[in-house]
Amino acid sequence: MTASPMLQMALDTVDLPSALAPLQRASRHIDVIECGTILVLCEGYRAVRIIRSLFPDKAILADVRIAEAGAKISRLAFEAGADLVSCVAGASLTTIRQVCATAEEFSGQVQVELSDEWYDPDRARAWYEAGARHAIVKRSRDREAEGDLSWGPEDMDRIDELAQMGFTVTITGGIVPEDLPCFAGREVGIVIAGRSITAAEDPEAAARTLRETLDEVWR
After folding, report:
1. Nearest-CA neighbor of 131 among 106, 161, 156, 160?
2. Which of 164, 151, 163 is nearest to 189 (CA)?
3. Going from the N-terminus, what domains does the chain have, and what CATH number goes with each?
4. Counting beta carbons within 10 angstroms of the beta carbon of residue 114, is it exposed (0 to 12), middle (13 to 18) or buried (19 or more)?
5. Who's near 105: CB < 8 A, 6+ residues apart?
6. Is the pTM of this model over 0.90?
7. How many CA atoms lie within 13 A of 84 on its CB side?
8. Tens place of pLDDT per residue across the chain (219 aa)
9. Under a CB-based contact definition with an 8 Å cutoff, are residues 82 and 60 in contact?
């Protein structure tokens, strides 16, 4: 029996008020709060600090997508109150090691976000050896914009292989409840939902439906 994944809410709005409004309504169904890349670019680490102060008991990801300057960027995120930080798959192993070393100082965690087309199992093993414990398999916003709404065999193979390596695997990419049954039985640790909650007329109901669907699919 595979455990039900955690639900992560991605806040990729351009300001804090538009992030906090849906978050405050949906938060009781959410396990991880993501201060998204767009939000952090617009509001800086202030977004992480404020969300940490408002939700002290929630896990917080600073989705800063580190490509270099790993020690400095990750330290700023952890000092602001993040529990996790993200790196891009194209970052050097030196950068990944720096981020992992900094995360260890703060008892934090590191995730690596795979691109649509880039995946090297040997490199993924090196990330794990460096200390990264989370990996993201995604259907990107650009891929969605081109009309590709599928999750194909290659996506599933990546999920399975990364899970076998020991990673907590996160899936993301415009996910709605109807997408979830295709992942049934797979070792998915976290499911990210962004616009399906933040743009919903009733964010609380949208988050609740996702949570109930996760529990049903992985029961």
Report:
1. 106
2. 163
3. 6-217 (3.20.20.70)
4. buried
5. 78
6. yes
7. 27
8. 568 999 999 999 999 999 999 999 999 999 999 999 999 999 999 999 999 999 999 999 999 999 999 999 999 999 999 999 999 999 999 999 999 999 999 999 999 998 766 678 999 999 999 999 999 998 755 555 555 556 888 889 999 999 999 999 999 988 999 999 999 999 999 999 999 999 999 999 999 999 999 999 998
9. yes
Residue showing tokens 């409840």:
177
Amino acid found at 109: Q
Give residue for tokens 């200390």: 131
Helices (H), the chain: 16-26, 37-43, 46-54, 70-80, 93-105, 121-130, 141-145, 153-165, 195-198, 203-217
